[in-house]
Amino acid sequence: MTPDLDRLLDRLEALRRQHARRVVVGIAGPPSFDHAVGEPVPDAITVPADADVVVTEGNYLLLGEGGWRAVPPLLDEVWFCALDDTVRQERLVARHIEAGREQADAQAWVARSDEANALLVTPTAAHADLVLHDGRVVGQG
Description:
Blueprint: H1 5-17, E1 32-34, E2 39-41, E3 79-82, H2 85-98, H3 103-121, E4 130-133, E5 136-140
Parallel strand pairs: 3-4
Antiparallel strand pairs: 1-2, 4-5
């Protein structure tokens, strides 16, 4: 996945400075990701004006490289959620199959691409405010 980091940063900044509690939508909407297409979907998420809490998710939020360094200061808290490798891999394969891949292709994709992402982001847990593993708190920053 190649996320639209510029759009994400723009939307997080807009939410931070939004004092009039307007709806963030349309051309200003945050992106989502369509696994069936394999691409980000611009302007796909609406943040209602009455939202008290906004949750964003992504593998690279704590990456600390390039433009990703700008993300954590825009967030009140960052939680790192992890699973045992086997459970994570099984769920990823199932998600890829649900999105239309064949079993063998899904397994190959997980072994190649998703595992590379896991190796990249796992060390970033040290920068999280809270670390959950299999739903249990295992660390706090």
